[in-house]
From TrEMBL, chain A:
<feature type="transmembrane region" description="Helical">
    <location>
        <begin position="124"/>
        <end position="144"/>
    </location>
</feature>
<comment type="similarity">
    <text>Belongs to the binding-protein-dependent transport system permease family.</text>
</comment>
<feature type="domain" description="ABC transmembrane type-1">
    <location>
        <begin position="89"/>
        <end position="294"/>
    </location>
</feature>
<feature type="transmembrane region" description="Helical">
    <location>
        <begin position="93"/>
        <end position="112"/>
    </location>
</feature>
<keyword id="KW-0813">Transport</keyword>
<dbReference type="InterPro" id="IPR035906">
    <property type="entry name" value="MetI-like_sf"/>
</dbReference>
<keyword id="KW-0472">Membrane</keyword>
UniProtKB/TrEMBL annotation, chain B:
<keyword id="KW-1003">Cell membrane</keyword>
<feature type="transmembrane region" description="Helical">
    <location>
        <begin position="290"/>
        <end position="315"/>
    </location>
</feature>
<comment type="similarity">
    <text>Belongs to the binding-protein-dependent transport system permease family.</text>
</comment>
<dbReference type="InterPro" id="IPR050809">
    <property type="entry name" value="UgpAE/MalFG_permease"/>
</dbReference>
<keyword id="KW-0812">Transmembrane</keyword>
<feature type="domain" description="ABC transmembrane type-1">
    <location>
        <begin position="94"/>
        <end position="311"/>
    </location>
</feature>
<keyword id="KW-0762">Sugar transport</keyword>
UniProtKB/TrEMBL annotation, chain C:
<dbReference type="InterPro" id="IPR050490">
    <property type="entry name" value="Bact_solute-bd_prot1"/>
</dbReference>
<dbReference type="InterPro" id="IPR006311">
    <property type="entry name" value="TAT_signal"/>
</dbReference>
<protein>
    <submittedName>
        <fullName>Extracellular solute-binding protein</fullName>
    </submittedName>
</protein>
<dbReference type="Pfam" id="PF01547">
    <property type="entry name" value="SBP_bac_1"/>
</dbReference>
<dbReference type="InterPro" id="IPR006059">
    <property type="entry name" value="SBP"/>
</dbReference>
């Protein structure tokens, strides 16, 4: 079996056959639709960036609608005034990277055996997993468990309880089912390949796209998450970025019916208006930066092309 | 072909089945010990973090209080369930929640698929990549800002929407105060925000399509649309079906934060859903109502599980793919 | 689709559950029963045998305004000579920074000798986030010696207090809290507001007597410049008010039909201003006390008259179309409208909700808007709802738990903070200044202190950001020095409240007080209360915007039927009982 001989043409190369007229029309429609949708999505993105760079007065009064009005980087300065932002950033990276590696590993370990036909007890084990999607013990028993394990107020409390998402596991399993043909397993067995060997040498190399998706989803989920940090951490030096950002937003918020201490209210109000946008910009940059690396693996025929042999 | 999961009766499979019948369960399990070994770690995780805390759900049948603890609190049977089902808003909440979720499902389920197919079809690499990157980004905009933008856009006096309608000689319409518009607003803004992110999974699925399939089809003179229909869609189908099933299982919950922010006294009759109600109840209550919340949660889980099982059975029968 | 249905949604759901209490809660930990560890928890016997604490001698050099009632600066002694350490849970705060490294923390430690081991919880102390975490800690038995700045409700304090989870501070306050004793003499209502139904006091309170806050609900602003232009006076009756708005609309002072005679937004209820021309109405939960009986306003005939009046205004286009749906940003966009004001008036809490405030320019737009006095209705009713009870004394500032061995020391530690100088350090940081003779305060009288750098970057890490225990009396607050070069809106806010609203306040006895409920009652109260709120606010908006007609007997009766169906009777019974308990 020669697994790695990629015989397909490099992705992105136009097909050699001339297009028919109807095909060209379909293509034009497709490009147009994609373009329009992209514009519709682009607008709020530009707006958010512009608002974060504008004088907050202009944001509130509605003068900003596309480009920044009264350029100001105050909001970004204000954010980096908070010491906890820097530690939050590095904590978040640790949680996202560590969490993604651990969770992806666990997910693959669960998904692969469950994708195999004829594994005794497979249905039962699947049911055990699916059941937990619907039923959970709830916040406090989980808190007790984390406490018993001695994880409270440690980085593990953030990473371990989130170390597997059944949703991702199911998707990954479905992937294996539809891309790793049973014949291949049988053939490998005949060649004397063990399950471990097959998983390591054949399944993993063939599953780059789904591994990439898992890494991305877990990293993004960790990156966006603040709730477990809220629940399990009481040391602000361990807080992830999102929790710090929430703190900044929440603490600059006022209940207008409770205007008790008005002197600083206005300053905070304006700051809040701008922070709302700059915080998003700050928090969105890293996920945007990693996306192209994930994208690299979404190449047509990347998997099956190499399967021929 | 490798991608075609519908081809079930390959000789290898038939052989495997025969072999399965021939050897005993113990032997088969022993033969697969390496697979079980792989499963062991995730299962230990599952036992600790998912099943161990689950005993806590019994407080739905108790009057839980902090001092007596989970096990020590008094049993009260189905008191909390009765209270919930008999509560004044029960049917309205149920109806609103279901309608909103089903509408969301119907309206937005196919959109990411379409986007993924479109992206997959586009051949200019820079175009494809930039569209992907841009459409993925709104996922990271917070709900507060999204709702803020919606409010600006639909503002009855100065919003873009009404200016546009005025050009057509229509309107103005006050979208926010009209309960009829709430669902459209919620669903379509959600589609717009999450479509790009949700398409990722389908893009990954499309990577499993062999280019040779397309080449062969082109030689046979198949048009682009026909190739999508016969080659790309079948590749996506297993994932799509599974996603659909999972979505049906979560039918009792919606994106509560956005609903809450879009609510006002005039659209509550359609916008009050289970999640927002429970949330507000928490705020209104002077004492945390652990047991009542657990009962509502359990109710939701049971309904979700029932629907999930049902959807799975239907999918197994008609789409030939299933969760277990 | 919902690709985030994975871990994200699970967390979102958990959070939801957390807000209510938790989808399922547990607690088999140290708290279950008083068995084995009963001996280990609870106060040490010597806690109640320490010498009684007394007020120290006054410090000199402080200019108290004449007739001043409030905290005073005294010489205070250290509390302990041998180091004593307590674990205290606090909200994490960006102003405080790391509590352990905070400057006021260090100062307190130096002055009192008491060391604190801080555990910082995210959130603001009074929001769903903090309480989710705190409830989880409580349920898991993971509790500290005390909570500072974590807002338990009165009913929760009572619940946990009655179960001996929180310490009844009564005996300690008597012996070790001279400053608090003085506070209770200054504010006779304070004690009543502190005690639980079983007479226990389960937290060390805080007092923040904010004058203008007491009138917040009844505040509405009107454009005086426009009044001048249409040649009318500040309206005093419902009829005059309608005339004024009609004139605004007719004159179209904003031009191009853009004039909005009267606006508002969804977080500032209309009824707390307008209904008071028909009956005393303090707003949600719309309860009042009439001859010792609790009354729900929204089923009274006077309420219906109010609805008819509002309906009339709305039908004539005198109220903003989006008055029930606009959010705060929206009303601010109207208020800030470039090129001139478009709002004749609005129901808002103060100028800042209406527009961006320019404090330097004396001609800034916000100066055009003045507080309206309540309007006299057809039957002569004219009330500005005055919050005597819910603004001022706050419970749950410091909660001592049964883990604490020496509640006496924490009580003294809290009482220490009620001293004038300590308050200023805790609140404004070390850079506050005593005022010199002749400095003017917010109320125009002699100022006591100034704090120019309050809550700015300079004080970051130096104060406790209002989470400490404080005694901010009315006189204390109003004797803050106003910088003549940089006046804030504090003075006009105070003056207009004093002149336009205070004279029309209802008698104290009519206000429905903050009550404490038993756990069972609290559950019922929350649910019926929430459904009533939905119905009342929804119906109000519909009656006013014309989806329902207040003049139609059938529709009004249907509305009342729905209210009864939701459970008005049992609800009122709970409130009546709780009210009677409060009255003692």
């Amino acid at each position: 079996m020669s697994m790695a001989t990629a015989t397909s043409s490099p992705p992105g190369t136009p097909a050699p056959v001339r297009e028919t007229r109807s095909d060209r029309i379909v293509m034009i429609c497709n490009y147009t639709a994609l373009g329009l949708f992209t514009l519709a999505v682009l607008y709020p993105l530009v707006y958010v960036v512009s608002a974060s760079l504008s004088d907050p007065k202009n944001v509130v009064s509605g003068k900003v609608w596309l480009w920044p009005v009264g350029l100001s980087v105050e909001a970004f300065k204000a954010i980096f005034d908070y010491d906890s932002i820097v530690s939050g950033f590095s904590n978040s990276i640790v949680y996202a990277v560590g969490g993604a590696l651990l969770a992806t590993a666990l997910t693959l370990l669960a998904a692969y055996p469950l994708s195999r036909k004829g594994l005794p007890g497979k249905g039962l084990i699947m049911a055990l997993f699916v059941f937990t999607m619907m039923f959970s013990g709830g916040l406090i028993p989980t808190y007790l468990v984390v406490d018993r394990l001695g994880l409270l107020n440690s980085r593990w409390a953030i990473v371990l309880p989130a170390a597997l998402a059944v949703w991702n596991m199911i998707i990954t399993r479905t992937f294996f089912q539809s891309t790793i043909p049973e014949e291949l397993v049988e053939a490998a067995k005949v060649d004397g390949c063990t399950d471990f060997g097959f998983f390591w040498r054949i399944v993993l190399p063939l599953s780059k796209p789904i591994i990439a998706v898992n890494m991305l989803f877990y990293a993004v989920a960790q990156w966006n998450s603040w709730f477990s940090a809220l629940i399990y951490l009481t040391n602000e030096h361990l807080f992830p970025l999102q929790l710090v950002l929430r703190q900044i937003l929440i603490q600059n918020q006022f209940d207008p019916s409770q205007v008790r201490d008005t002197a600083e209210l206005i300053r905070m109000k304006e700051l809040q208006e701008q922070l709302k946008f700059s915080l998003i910009v700050i928090a969105t940059v890293p996920p945007l930066l990693i996306y192209p690396f994930v994208q690299k693996h979404f190449v047509k025929g990347a998997m099956v092309g190499s399967l021929k042999g | 072909m490798a991608t075609d999961t519908l081809v079930r009766r390959t000789p290898a499979r038939t052989r495997a089945r025969k072999a399965k019948q021939a050897v005993g369960l113990g032997t088969r399990m022993r033969r697969n010990w390496q697979l079980y070994a792989m499963l062991a770690i995730p299962l230990v995780w599952l036992a600790i973090f998912a099943y161990w805390p689950m005993y806590g759900a019994i407080i739905a049948f108790k009057d839980y209080n902090v001092v007596d603890g989970i096990l020590g609190s008094r049993w009260v049977g189905v008191k909390h369930f009765e209270r919930f089902v008999e509560s004044y808003q029960f049917w309205r909440l149920l109806k609103n929640t279901l309608i909103l979720h089903v509408y969301e499902l119907l309206a937005t389920f196919w959109l990411p698929i379409l986007l993924a197919l479109g992206l997959n079809m586009a051949r200019r690499r820079w175009y494809r990549r930039s569209v992907q990157l841009i459409t993925y980004a709104p996922h990271f905009i917070s709900t507060v800002v999204v709702v803020g933008l919606i409010v600006v856009i639909v503002d009855p006096n100065s919003g873009v929407l009404n200016q546009f309608l005025a050009l057509l000689g229509l309107g103005p319409i006050d979208v926010l105060s009209n309960p009829d518009y709430f669902r459209h607003l919620y669903v379509w803004s959600g589609a717009w925000q999450t479509m790009g992110f949700s398409a990722i999974i389908y893009l990954a699925a499309l990577t499993s399509v062999s280019p040779e399939l397309h080449e062969a089809a082109i030689v046979d003179g198949a048009s682009r649309l026909r190739r999508i229909w016969h080659i790309d869609l079948p590749a996506i189908r297993p994932v799509a079906v599974i996603l659909l099933i999972l979505n049906i299982g979560s039918i009792m919950s919606v994106g509560f934060e956005k609903v809450l922010l879009l609510q006002n006294t005039l659209n509550l009759q359609t916008s009050e859903v289970l999640d927002t109600y429970v949330y507000k109840l928490g705020f209104a209550s002077q004492v945390p109502q652990f047991s009542y919340a657990a009962a509502i949660g359990l109710f939701r889980s049971v309904v979700g599980l029932a629907l999930l099982v049902l959807a799975n059975a239907v999918a197994r029968r008609f789409a030939k793919s299933s969760l277990w | 689709m919902r690709a985030e249905t994975g871990p994200g949604s699970v967390r979102r759901r958990t959070f939801l559950a957390g807000a209510v209490g938790a989808a399922a809660a547990g607690g088999t930990g140290a708290l279950s029963g008083c068995g084995a560890d009963a001996a280990e928890v609870g106060a040490a016997p010597e806690s109640l045998t320490q010498p009684v604490a007394e007020l120290g001698p006054l410090k000199s050099g402080v200019n108290y305004p004449p007739g001043y009632v409030g905290p005073r600066a005294r010489r205070q002694q250290t509390i302990v000579t041998e180091p004593a350490t307590f674990t205290v849970v606090v909200p994490q705060s960006l102003v405080v920074g790391d509590w352990a490294k905070n400057e006021f923390t260090r100062w307190m430690e130096q002055q009192t000798g008491i060391r604190i081991q801080w555990r910082q919880v995210a959130g603001k102390g009074n929001d769903a986030e903090t309480m989710t975490k705190v409830n989880a800690m409580m349920a898991a038995g993971d509790i500290p010696d005390a909570f500072l700045g974590i807002t338990f409700t009165r009913s929760q304090l009572y619940l946990y207090g009655a179960q001996n989870l929180f310490v009844d501070l009564n005996p300690y306050l008597e012996r070790y809290a001279p400053n608090l004793q003085q506070l209770m003499k200054d504010y006779p209502q304070a004690r009543k507001l502190m005690v639980s139904p079983d007479k226990g006091i389960y937290s060390f309170p805080d007092l923040n007597d904010c004058y203008h806050c007491r009138a917040s609900n009844g505040r509405a602003l009107l454009n005086t410049e426009w009044l001048r232009k249409v040649g009318l006076a500040m309206p005093t009756t419902t009829d005059e008010f309608r005339e004024v708005l009609t004139a605004f609309k007719k004159a179209d002072l904003a031009g191009g039909g853009k004039t909005i005679p009267f606006g508002g937004y969804k977080d500032a209820p209309l009824d707390t201003f307008f209904m008071n021309s028909f009956l005393y109405n303090a707003g949600e939960p719309w309860l009042a006390v009439e001859d010792g009986k609790v009354r729900a306003n929204y089923v009274q005939d006077e309420w219906r008259e109010g609805l008819k009046y509002l309906r009339g205004l709305y039908a004539d286009g005198l109220l903003a179309k989006d008055i029930f749906t606009a959010n705060e940003d929206q009303i601010k966009r109207y208020g800030d409208n470039p090129g001139g004001p478009i709002l004749g008036g609005a129901r808002v809490y103060y100028w800042g909700t209406l527009m961006t405030l320019d404090l330097v320019d004396p001609k800034a737009r916000w100066h055009e808007y003045a507080t309206m006095q309540p309007l006299k209705g057809p039957n002569g009713v004219q009330v500005a709802p005055w919050d005597y009870l819910k603004v001022g004394l706050e419970v749950s500032t410091l909660v001592v738990t049964r883990k604490c061995k020496r509640p006496d020391l924490l009580t003294r530690w809290a009482d220490f903070q009620l001293d004038l100088e300590v308050i200023l350090r805790s609140y404004a940081g070390p850079d506050f200044r005593w005022s010199v003779k002749g400095d003017k305060g917010i109320n125009g009288k002699q100022a006591l202190y100034g704090m120019d750098s309050w809550n700015t970057d300079e004080t970051k890490g130096k104060t406790w950001d209002q989470y400490g225990v404080m005694y901010r009396s009315g006189d204390f607050r109003l004797s803050e020095r106003v910088d003549p070069k940089k006046p804030t809106f504090e003075s006009p806010l105070y003056e207009q409240t004093r002149d336009a609203l205070y004279p029309y306040r209802q008698p104290l006895e009519e206000q429905f007080p903050p009550v404490t409920l038993e756990a069972d009652q609290a559950a019922l109260d929350a649910e019926i209360g929430l459904n009533l709120k939905t119905e009342v606010t929804g119906a109000l908006a519909k009656f006013v915007t014309g989806r329902l007609d207040p003049n139609d007997d059938g529709q009004w009766n249907d509305y009342k039927d729905r209210i009864n169906q939701i459970g008005l009777q049992p609800y009122l019974e709970i409130q009546q009982a709780a009210y009677e308990t409060y009255q003692g």
